[in-house]
Amino acid sequence: MDYLIAILGGYLLGSIPFGILLTRLAGLGDLRQVGSGNIGATNVLRTGRKDVALATLILDAAKAATALTLAGHYLGSPSNPNLDVGFCAGASALLGHCFPIWLKFCGGKGVATFFGTLLIGMWPVGVLVGGLWLATAYTFRYSSLSALVSSAAAPLIAVVFHISPIGVGATLFMSLIVWIRHRENIARLIKGEEPHIGKH
């Protein structure tokens, strides 16, 4: 029952579309009509409002971190959090972000939410995966490629740090979702049509 509560609660928390809510509050219209139509921070940046994009990035990461923390503490105990339950909640938050019921299951790509789960649930893994994202972005100048490389490496890094089997499984699940949500980017990368970081 604890796992079911964590999964449902994480999904609902993750499905809050902060990108859409913040852009509307800022008077920027419907984010789904801007750029790629994605609800994440990268597309918010295309509105020209870096502050709103940053807020979206932080909140998208925070909703996974919050789901993991709440599930771990309240379905475990404050002194001995149940991290396995927390990992399930964080992974479910990413699922909710990418496939929110409120938006006909058409959401974001999950990168910020992915890092939110890693940094709170297994911070050494999160730091290394984040460093790999930065190194790939600096070298190749593709945001999508950075997400693909770092998310693919995350489960392997989790194994190296002896994260629990459920934690590794949750990380692998999240990596697969990130790859599924980047399938159009993968096609553009293969064709050489993916825009570099900084290009419109």
Describe this structure in words.
By secondary structure, this protein is mostly helical. The protein has one domain (2-191). Helix content is 70%, strand content 0%. The protein contains ten helices and no strands. It has helices spanning 2-14, 18-25, 41-45, 50-74, 83-98, 111-121, 123-140, 143-160, 165-181, 183-191. Helix 1 (2-14) runs antiparallel to helix 4 (50-74), helix 2 (18-25) packs across helix 4 and helix 4 packs across helix 6 (111-121).
Q: Extract low-pLDDT stretches.
A: none
Please work out how many helical segments DSSP would assign. 10
User: Total strand count, please?
Assistant: 0
Order of SSEs, N→C? HHHHHHHHHH
Structural domain tally: 1
Structural class: mainly alpha
Through-space gap between termini? 47 Å
What is this entry, summarized?
This protein has 200 residues and is mainly α. The chain is 70% helix and 0% strand.
